[in-house]
Amino acid sequence: MEKPNSRLSNRTLAFVLAGGRGSRLKDLTETRAKPAVYFGGKTRIVDFALSNALNSGIRKMAIATQYKAHSLIRHCQRGWSFFRAERNEYLDILPASQRVAEDKWYVGTADAVTQNIDIIDSYGIEYILILAGDHIYKMDYEIMLREHVDSGADVTVGCLTVSKEEAKAFGVMAVDDNWKITSFLEKPADPPTMPGSDTETLASMGLYVFKWSYLRELLIRDAEADHSKHDFGGDIIPYIVENGHAQAHRFTESCVRHAADAPAYWKDVGTVDAYWQANIDLTNFDPDLDLWDTNWPIWTYSESMPPAKFIHDTEGRRGHALSSLVSGGCIISGTEIRESLLFSKVKTNSYAKLNQAVILPDCNIGRSAELTKCVVDRGVDIPEGLKIGTEDAPDHLDRDGKPIFHTSPGGVTLITKPMVDKWHEVHG
Fold first, then answer.
1. What is the CATH number of the domain that holds 186?
2. Residues 352 and 263 in one domain
3. 171 annotated binding-site participant
4. Whole-model pTM above 0.90?
5. Which of 213, 230, 261, 324 could in theory staple to 111 by disulfide, Cβ–Cβ 3.0 to 4.6 A?
6. Which domain holds residue 384?
7. Per-residue pLDDT tens digits for 176-190
């Protein structure tokens, strides 16, 4: 019998799926998984799911990793090592490690959980919250957990309200008037609308709540099904919709807003354009995502470093930043910065200009370089005088006549170390 005032989060494991590459981010995921990509000047993408769990009262977490996981594992070890086992709290990292067979890695999102059933059993939890580790949002999971228990559902699915056009890129749900899911469709051409609206539909956030004993049996059955892809969205959820009770939970009911009239903020930063835009949006006067909210902080690994420093004050050589975020350890030496976001330990040199640029940690911006609408990967040394994204910028072609730097469909230029090395090969 449930204890009065007992928070469900105390009996819940947050299981974060963080094994994917995120290939649409191009070279940003060449050396790291998508959840480990830097975001917002200080954090990594995975910090949002983990912080939501922590702020919701969940103290038992596990992260399933697979693709190039070293950066992600190192970040979690450094930034999330404050849990105390003697208080029955922890964050376990569960790499794909051939636990089932020597030739079998995680073959689907559900399989990542299945392969760790024995470990999850040892936690002694009652509920399991399945999270994607690659989205930017703030959400109180306790509200969703409570709705799951009150509805008596077999699974509760976190849902976004999106337009019919946007829904074509999501897993989409049709629901009845009680928000019970009646069908689950992957990227439909004609998405069903939600109750009370002819233009909006419900899209899956890839976020699910189950009673562990129920999911455990379902995973074992699914593992033995030869036709299954062992995926939550493709197999597990459709099975429950057809044979059990699947409930929709609207993100608007549990999102954490920085103001009462603020929109429900959720972003999939899975493309270069979306990643750049979400970072640049933080430079707005009143951004929809509030990183300054101490009531719902985004936890991360914080290095000890000095404040940002701005030097030189002569015409054309003035170190200053307008409508920008500049992180600790940066030295802005005679550089003009506008609507840009600089991560830690970025050094800029005299007469350089940055406009709508996202600069990841440990970069050096060469003297007189001009970068507009760019994302610069970690540790890049931008050559002196390099111009990218400006009206007078050259095409920057290699010896075969192919572009050296990747430009997205939205006109964002991605700059990485190998690209700059190739630029040096051409220019000597």
1. 3.90.550.10
2. no
3. yes
4. yes
5. 230
6. 309-427
7. 999 999 999 888 888
